[in-house]
Design a protein that fits this description.
- The chain has 4 domains: about 150 residues, Mannitol-specific EII, Chain A (3-Layer(aba) Sandwich); about 120 residues, Response regulator (Rossmann fold), CATH 3.40.50.2300; about 170 residues, no CATH class; about 170 residues, no CATH class.
- About 60% of the residues lie in helices and about 10% in strands.
- The strands form 2 sheets. Strands 1, 2, 3, 4 and 5 form a 5-stranded mixed β-sheet that branches.
- The protein is an alpha/beta fold and about 650 residues long.
Length: about 650
């Protein structure tokens, strides 16, 4: 596919007016919407900002590649925009961005489009092309430059392929005695841009350094240039430049560097040289220092713990939401038809069935995140044991519960890691026994002993003490806890603080046999405040928001009322101080009020739907209204006037 079919002339912006990151994104997404490339401006813009919140797409050298792949995109397109003055875009090198390539990929993008997007991305490491693009004056100039660059690259690729084929035909090795050989894998979450830019940068740098290299890409179109066993066996080392998990077991016994994908783009010399010097630890698929250990050291222990916890929470949430809403319906049916009706019995039992899996699934997927698939079964059983009051030597009145399940997940994961190290030196002929026999049997036996004699007795006591403390808590202390939990929901809007508060409320709810929803009231209303605050502020203080933001603000009424805190993320990403500051204040006040008025929400999700279930409807409504209005007014007062309205 010709790259020029993606670089449409009628969506190019040759003189970008924006001077800030937010304004640049607004200007480019608005252009897409006007041209009919996207049919939902809010959805696409929100996904662009969400991607920017993960890490900047300003890759340096005056280039930014904001991108999103979602249902709003009608056809694969790349919007080219040029700013002579430059835009502060939080680029990795701290310099202004002059060239923008906003990539829009539909959810069902075909391989032809994805290959073209990958090819375009790889061309942008060519400094001559970048310099020429900065001087381009018309859309025709841009298309001509890319057309020439694509033709030159295709010619070079064909020559390299022919040369490689000739070597194979002549039964020669692909590297010479004085030319070292390395292999690499590149991958990024969206698999559109950074994956292929890292590939191109590594290949080009390796050629300049006189190093032979093969790069496997794990992109949107699947795995390309897959490394064979022969490739890996020949290589002196392995580079993984990735921001998502890639298959590593195949690199057993090789020196391996595990780095973010952006290092593949910006530091290819460093990665290649360190690989040649074998500075990467020796990877062992079973035990020893592996890529996961190295990644943990680079990212920090707490980041890794959070990643493992979130793997458990994310897999648990479908049970929470599905079971919670079905159970909420059962309470309505009980009020309408009675406790002995078939409607109540069926929905209540179904909700309870889903809820019975909360702790086991949480523990199982925390364990999987740490110890991979062999840890699934020990983690699941450990989580199940944490829910049983009689599953300990000490006949505890309370189960180990949610916190016991958390402990079970981490213990099961690291238990399997330990077993992998213990059995790492078994003969290769017995490798098949590890996953079929050794890990399941020994892992389960050890997990059972640990849960039975240690975890359950300890955490049952802790869980019982916590429940007793909360049940006996006076109104004053309850208000303080409500303030803290609700504020945490707004601090990072779906991040670690938000998930910690929600997990705490779920734990108490589960431990109380799904009756104590006081803390659920605080976190639910606290999580509803941020999008509602934005909606209120954009409605009553319109000059403080751009036209695009005001349109998005209307959507936040719906998102806020349905307890989707993430609706505020696009705004918080571009204006964190005002958005988060106002939201935290409003949420904290609302959370405290839920405890003052003794609001109990017997469902873990639903937002305004939960109003029908609460024992204190006045308290629910007033807590939500007061918190949302305070946050919205604060935001409207102290947020500066938008530049387009000044």
């Amino acid at each position: 596919m010709d790259i020029r079919e993606l670089l449409l002339k009628d969506v190019m912006i040759m003189d970008l007016k924006a001077t800030t990151k937010e304004a640049a994104i607004d200007e480019m997404t608005a252009k897409y919407f006007e041209a009919g490339i996207i049919n939902d401006l809010d959805l696409y813009r929100g996904d662009i900002l969400k991607r920017e919140g993960e890490s900047t797409t300003g890759i340096g050298d005056g280039i930014a590649m904001p991108h999103a792949k979602d249902a709003a995109v009608q056809r694969a397109t790349v919007l080219f925009a040029k700013s002579d003055a430059g835009v502060e875009f939080n680029a990795l090198d701290g310099q202004p961005v002059h060239l923008f390539f906003m990539i829009a990929a539909p959810e069902g993008a075909n391989n032809t489009h994805l290959q073209a997007l990958a090819a375009l991305s790889s061309l942008l490491i060519n400094p001559e092309l970048v310099a020429a693009l900065k001087q381009a004056q018309t859309p025709d100039d841009v298309q001509r430059l890319f057309g020439d660059a694509q033709a030159a690259k295709e010619k070079k690729d064909a020559e390299e392929a022919a040369a490689e084929a000739a070597k194979v035909a002549a039964a020669k090795v692909t590297t010479t005695s004085d030319q070292p050989y390395i292999v690499a894998v590149t991958a990024c979450p969206t698999g559109i841009a950074h994956t292929y830019m890292a590939e191109a940068a590594l290949k080009e740098t390796a050629e300049k350094m006189g190093v032979a290299i093969k790069v496997e890409t794990n992109g949107s179109e699947g795995v390309k240039h897959q490394l064979t066993a022969a490739d890996i066996d020949r290589a002196v080392g392995v580079i993984i430049a990735a921001d998502k998990k890639v298959e590593t077991a195949r690199f057993d016994g090789k020196h391996l560097l595990n780095r973010p994908v952006i290092d593949g783009i910006k530091k290819p010399n460093e990665l290649i040289q360190e690989t040649l010097d074998q500075k990467g630890g020796v990877f062992h698929a079973e035990g020893g220092a592996d890529a996961e250990t190295e990644a943990t050291e680079q990212k920090g222990l707490w980041n890794r713990i959070y990643q493992d916890l979130m793997n458990g929470v994310s897999n648990m949430l479908p049970f929470v939401v599905g079971g919670g809403i079905i159970m909420a319906l059962s309470f309505l049916f009980e009020n309408w038809f009675g406790a002995h009706s078939m409607a109540f019995t069926f929905t209540n039992n179904l909700g309870n069935y889903a809820f019975s899996f909360l702790v086991p699934v949480l523990a199982a997927y925390i364990a999987v995140s740490i110890g991979d698939r062999p840890a699934l079964m020990p983690g699941f059983v450990g989580g199940y044991m944490a829910t049983l009051a009689a599953a300990s030597v000490v006949k505890a009145q309370n189960p180990a519960g949610f916190i016991g399940g958390l402990a079970a997940g981490f213990i099961a994961g690291w238990l399997i890691i330990g077993l992998k190290k213990c059995f790492a030196k078994l003969p290769h002929s017995l490798d098949g026994l590890k996953t079929i026999l050794i890990y399941p049997v020994i892992g389960l036996a050890l997990m059972g002993l640990i849960m039975f004699f240690i975890v359950n007795p300890i955490f049952a006591a802790i869980n019982g003490a916590l429940i007793g403390f909360l049940e006996g808590m006076g109104t004053g202390n309850a208000i303080i806890v409500g303030v803290i939990l609700a504020a945490m929901m707004s601090i990072d809007m779906g991040g670690p603080f938000n998930k910690a508060a929600y997990t705490f409320a779920i734990g108490i709810y589960q431990a109380s046999n799904f009756k104590d929803g006081r803390w659920m009231a605080a976190v639910m209303i606290g999580g509803m405040i941020p999008p509602l605050a934005i909606a209120i502020a954009s409605t009553f203080f319109p000059k403080k928001f751009t036209a695009t933001e005001r349109n998005s603000g209307l959507t936040n009424y719906v998102l806020g009322l349905t307890f989707i805190t993430e609706g505020a993320i696009p705004f918080a990403a571009t204006d964190p101080v005002h958005i988060i500051g106002s939201s935290v204040i409003g949420s904290a006040i609302a959370g405290g009020l839920t405890q003052l008025w003794h609001v109990n929400v017997p469902a873990p999700h639903g937002g305004i739907v939960a109003l029908a279930l609460t024992n204190q409807k006045f308290g629910f409504i007033m807590s939500l209204l007061i918190g949302a209005v305070i946050a919205g007014v604060l935001l409207g007062i102290w947020r500066p006037v938008a530049k387009e309205n000044a």
